[in-house]
């Protein structure tokens, strides 16, 4: 992304934001509430118009694509939104098969086989497939939404606050699942999150958004060393200390973050 400007009326939310996400990395994206994290995600996906700037995905400028090129590209990314994770009136099967119907021309039998594979991939039992979202726990809904995001075997996953609303154990398990899937499928993951544990345990790099721009980007050590007021307050604040952040916990420059240890 280069020099992205997004405004709603008089209010400019993104003020010339630039960021590179590398293939195969898990990039965590943090910033103050209302700062524009979801807006950036939606801008990348083409759901929010930008005033200026360029977004390139797989080396292609998204503004220059024909309708069919755009559809081809959309099959190469999967998205898990913070809200409305699933269509409530559709069963789990219908939810997961939704992108397949939209983009692929394959038989019902094959779609059913893929659905079972995806459900198993996210750690759920196949009997979940016949259920409605209202019959599932919050953690199961997130997993089904992840299965749907994986339906087309994407190369990039966009996750908007995937662990919000989960208890710490559920969130930790979901983080582990994302790290495992990233490793086994070689995914690139762009993850908006407020979850300090997620940032610590699964992200290779973190980008911090403040004042409409990326003000710090790098591994957790870079965040801990940042002199930017918001970044410093976030990564050295009370919540950060409670989550075990900081040099005392071995996550400082001499330490190394959790994901490396987990690899
Ligand atoms: N379609 C829209 N029309 C007008 N304003 C919008 C629109 N979408 C987002 N905004 C505004 O843009 C700002 C950034 O919103 P965004 O949802 O990106 O924040 P966020 O960083 O994701 O916050 P949170 O962490 O609370 O989810 C907010 O002030 C929001 O009200």
UniProtKB/TrEMBL annotation:
Gene3D superfamilies recorded: P-loop containing nucleotide triphosphate hydrolases (3.40.50.300)
Extract the GO molecular function terms from the UniProt entry: ATP binding; ATP hydrolysis activity
**Record PROSITE patterns:** ABC_TRANSPORTER_1, ABC_TRANSPORTER_2
Q: Which domain of life is it from?
A: Bacteria
Residue ranges annotated for the ABC transporter domain, each copy included: 1-236
Per UniProt, the keywords (alphabetical) are: ATP-binding, Nucleotide-binding, Transport
* Record SMART domains: AAA (SM00382)
Q: Family, per the entry?
A: Belongs to the ABC transporter superfamily.
The entry's protein name is: Phospholipid/cholesterol/gamma-HCH transport system ATP-binding protein
Q: Which organism is the protein's source?
A: Ancylobacter tetraedralis
